[in-house]
Model the fold of this input.
Amino acid sequence: MLPLIVVFTALGGVLSALAASSFLLMMPARRASLLPRLVSFATGTLLGAALLGLIPHALDANGPGGAHRIGAALLFGILGFFLLEKFVLWRHCHDDPCEMHSPSDATRDLASARLILVGDGLHNVIDGVLIAAAFLTDPKLGIVTTVAVFAHEIPQEVGDLAVLLNGGFSRRQALLLNLLVSLTSVAGAVLAYFALQAALPVLPYALAVAAASFLYVAVADLIPGLHRRVDFRAGAEQLVFIVAGVAVVWLTHQQMH
Done:
């Protein structure tokens, strides 16, 4: 069973990353025009994944009476990512002194990109746990779960690529990092296979921390970046793409259920 779990988990991660990477095949001018819209879309997918997917699943998995514990995990996750971003910004400014001790927009974009890698890696580990649990229940259920995770990850992967490119990574770096992070789902699957009973009680809190990372990046980093453009047309366009990102996540979850 383990080889089957590993193959399907890796296949789902690789295919979702490659499907999203079609964005990188576009001409540079086209990518440059699409990038601000994709950042808005990424904001919507992060908010949707956290508020419509991860947090409700964490609450359901934790059972009745566990809402306060999930809320605490979410709070500590947000504070943890705040401290992590502070450390990333401090280290960057220590190596390359920031003007007037204030990090530039480019520095904050880079910090957001690094944080999204951490959060998405944790999210993919959890996906691997879910796929392994489904396979151990019924191989057919495992295949269906793999397909659902694959469909769910595509919009998220596109958003991640947009955040990485916006953070200053090259196309090759963004693709490679996105692919490597996608494969962390294999680690989650192997962990679940050997220690499923020990891993499942931690799952709701891991979901909450993953949600915290998505919420923090969306609210603290991406949305302030969107406010750099203040004209009405830009604001309306941003709102449309944010809503589109939320809608794609919501529709995907509807299909999964």
Summary: The chain has a mean pLDDT of 78. Residues 2-256 form one domain. The radius of gyration is 18 Å.
